[in-house]
Amino acid sequence: MPKRSPTLSTVVALLSAALTLSCVFIVAAQSGRRVRKPAPVPVSTPEPTTAPNKPAEKRKAAFTFIIGMDRYGDFSRIPLYVSTGVLHTCADRLDDPESVDVEVASRDISRADAVLRAKSEKEAYVVWLRLAPETLSGRTGSNDDPYNVSIEYTVLAPTTAKQVTSGRTFPGAYRKGGVILSPKTSGVAGDYQLNQAAKAAAERILDHFHVGVGGMHLVD
Q1: Is-above-0.90 flag for pTM?
Q2: CATH number where 131 lies
Q3: Cα dihedral sign for 67, 209, 194, 154?
Q4: Per-residue pLDDT tens for 54-86?
């Protein structure tokens, strides 16, 4: 059997040694390699939910008035826009104090209607206005001054319709030295003197309930 060449045997041995060393280095390199951790997935943080603001509680008025007027039953010849001015002037003055709420009746009401309305109310007082001609007959004739009237006011208690207070105010009190100041004005503002008398009626009603302009109860 022929002998192997020493040179060939040496080459084969060197190749085997080199291959073995390569495998060792590869295994060592892999064993020493750090495994990268996966990047953390960002977690969305829910925004804090704010509780909705509670609606402000509605202020409860100390007094509530429902005001109405019979503009057709006064037997006078005063234009409707003038009597409407009296109604709204009185209502606006009543509504000035913070402790008072005022509702204007949506239609004309007679005294009988005012009584029925008061009986149907649990808390609201009914204020009834009337323009009363200052004549012996209680009505204005063709030759009479239609503005010669007073403002009658009546306040009825809720549930019972009992008359709480009443009275009259007179437009003539708002003249200076017997001279009429803007006695009959045109437009929705109505008559100056009648509107002043309407304010006076409202102030008397507020005084009866001891309510001042700022809504405070006045002390007797």
Answers
A1: no
A2: 3.40.50
A3: positive
A4: 666 656 789 999 999 988 765 567 888 889 999
